[in-house]
Amino acid sequence: MRASTALMTDRYELTMLDAALRDGTAGRNCVFELFARRLSGGRRFGVVAGTGRLLSLLRDFRFGDDELRFLRDERVVSPAAVRHLEDYRFSGTITGYREGELYFPGSPVLTVEGSFADAVILETLALSVMNHDSAVATAASRMSIAAGDRPLAEMGSRRAAEHSAVAAARAAFIAGFGATSNLEAGRLWGIPTMGTAAHAWTLLHDTEEGAFRSQIDALGTGTTLLVDTYDIARGVELAVRVAGTGLGGVRIDSGDLPIVAADVRSQLDALGATGTRITVTSDLDEYAIAALAASPVDAYGVGTSVVTGSGYPTAGMVYKLVARQGADGGWVAVSKKAEGKNSQGGRKSAFRRLVRGVAREELVEIADGFEISADPGDIADSRPLQVTLVDHGAIDAAHEGPQGVRTARAHHLRVREELPVRALALSKSDPAIPTVFSDAGRR
Amino acid sequence: MRASTALMTDRYELTMLDAALRDGTAGRNCVFELFARRLSGGRRFGVVAGTGRLLSLLRDFRFGDDELRFLRDERVVSPAAVRHLEDYRFSGTITGYREGELYFPGSPVLTVEGSFADAVILETLALSVMNHDSAVATAASRMSIAAGDRPLAEMGSRRAAEHSAVAAARAAFIAGFGATSNLEAGRLWGIPTMGTAAHAWTLLHDTEEGAFRSQIDALGTGTTLLVDTYDIARGVELAVRVAGTGLGGVRIDSGDLPIVAADVRSQLDALGATGTRITVTSDLDEYAIAALAASPVDAYGVGTSVVTGSGYPTAGMVYKLVARQGADGGWVAVSKKAEGKNSQGGRKSAFRRLVRGVAREELVEIADGFEISADPGDIADSRPLQVTLVDHGAIDAAHEGPQGVRTARAHHLRVREELPVRALALSKSDPAIPTVFSDAGRR
Prior knowledge:
2 copies of one chain form a homodimer.
Chain A: H1 11-23, E1 29-36, E2 46-47, H2 51-59, H3 65-73, H4 79-86, E3 93-97, E4 102-103, E5 110-115, H5 116-119, H6 123-147, E6 152-154, H7 162-174, E7 179-180, H8 183-189, H9 199-204, H10 208-219, E8 224-226, H11 232-243, E9 249-252, H12 257-270, E10 277-280, H13 286-291, E11 299-302, H14 304-307, E12 317-325, E13 331-333, E14 348-355, E15 358-366, E16 382-384, E17 386-391, E18 394-395, H15 401-416, E19 435-439
Parallel strand pairs in A: 6-7, 6-11, 8-9, 9-10, 10-11, 15-19
Antiparallel strand pairs in A: 1-5, 1-12, 2-4, 3-5, 3-17, 12-13, 14-15, 14-16, 17-18
Helix pairs in contact in A: 2-6, 6-7, 10-11, 11-12
């Protein structure tokens, strides 16, 4: 049995559940919405990631003996609430954007429908997963755009907590990276893994030549040799001398990369190693990658900046009650009114409006009542954005596992093509397309 | 059985292991060091965190059937290397700073000694844990200093990936926070948990009064009511009307906090609720907390900024080979010489030199040979910083679990008192004390 995820939850969710069981509101049907009020860092689009992970974690959102004992012993909630949680299993419905889809301010990324008791306690887990994974995917997509056709590998595991590292490798792959250094991401999610040697390999040996020779004996001349442990020019000369002109590649992890890359390319060509590829891996982010576009670099490895969202490690999404049943059973749209944090109440349907294949606006329709037909067939030039992820408690397994990752990556690369050209610039600006809220009926 | 951590590893570590098994260097004894070249963000000190977690994760660093099958099927390493990994268990020695200790540039936070094969493959896991947890603890300690005697709670789980959230709650507690909203952190690490209600609680009910009344019925008048869902002044008036002047507290999650806190305090006092406490929770960081020092605030809740390291989500520590045995069995200090990334080779002993109880410098002695006596008894006014965490494969359990967390927190609060006054300022500057490298003999 896998570990329970049920206590990856803020205490107040269970406190509210407890009080709602007492006062009879626990059974009120509710609509919670997960969305971002704005895009972090003047980004022009966000990338939805984490959906497939969240669905698998939802399967393990059960209160086992250890979790129940903690809640009882610490008196987090009443005995009646503990009994309620013994049998808890989410039985509501979740619709949401496909993983890999783009999002904009106010996009209803996830809509969770169910009783208050069912839905309120998913807040923290849903936000933890979606905020982290979407932040990484959003940064990764910008890097992938900057890299163009050159291969891009994620190698930032050491700069992220151990489980986050695996999730980050997954999010980066969905957003266009081609490989990861993280082996667990390879095992769990089917992502290609890469890597040959660190500086420790050279330092372990009595000479750099000995290190290179041994690596080539083990991995063949197609391997990539790390040439900057001592002196780069001497390292390159030695690498070609040891491996021959068929050497697969050299990696550079330090120095002023545009200058160093040009020097190394000249040296390799002069030595006859014209097919030897140059990989650079030193503190890259989307701006550094863009600055190397004209340099003779063949591949990039990105660490810290991708796994930390390149300055914005969380997507800032929130999980808000937007509609509920009242005492009379009728539906009421609700939203907080406090200063500066207004949000749109009501259940929403979302469409991307396209003109000649180019995205023009994010259309978010607010339903008057609970039942709205969101039949996409009658919407010209609009693409419906929401799919059913959980149907009355039944999780759609198509979004999970390695298959879900492949589908999400393909979807991301496809919908990215719909963006207007201005969306591809790296500078800070407004969202690439506006979000337009409307009552049902406009189109 | 707990999940294996063995593939939370960059592929190149296993590739190097594989090649080292072939060329005979796998058995060379090595010293790897985990340290930070600089303090992120102009911080004046860093806080070591993650040590206790790392030791527990090291217990699970075993290659099971699933991990071995992946390595074999994907041909990550040769069959001989897969056979070697079947029996892998770290049998070396790890010394390091106590969890909760302060660190400075070049402090040998962890020293890992063992064969190359034993030690090289711990790089990613060790860095993932220490970089994340230390980044959070360093930010948290600054917030704890800024908060002074006022209680401080961590509530950022939703802005960190689901496992990182638990680790962040732990790191913040070690660095001086008093509680967390994260229930799993309470269960796993014994950290006090807190929380009462979100805006969804008020919105669920037909009226704000109904929500407040129900919460008080469930949790008593000592509870904290969230008063900013609609209008704060009306919320405060209502809260006291419903709960009476014995109301425990009100929470404010929006607005211009210095102004709002003063207004709410005046209103509470005028209503006779002079003992009702004010908790603020809106986008706080160490600077906002410091700016509220003169405001009538009784407690702080901090979310995003603490779990993301307040702008610096990773501590930037590295794991470097610093000494190894040569072909003749003698020890050789090694270090990379490439531009801009020099580090000090050699095995190190570290001491904090104090004058009248105030820290003056971080003394890092570099041993000439491998065997150096680091008997602290003969060092006047110096405090030895390293302890044995793993002794020839035997993990010291005293650092693990809730007991380890309590010990680390007490240690942190004690050693923070040794800092010079200038170390407590929040502005960017140099490290509070210099790191002095010396050959053994000076003192």
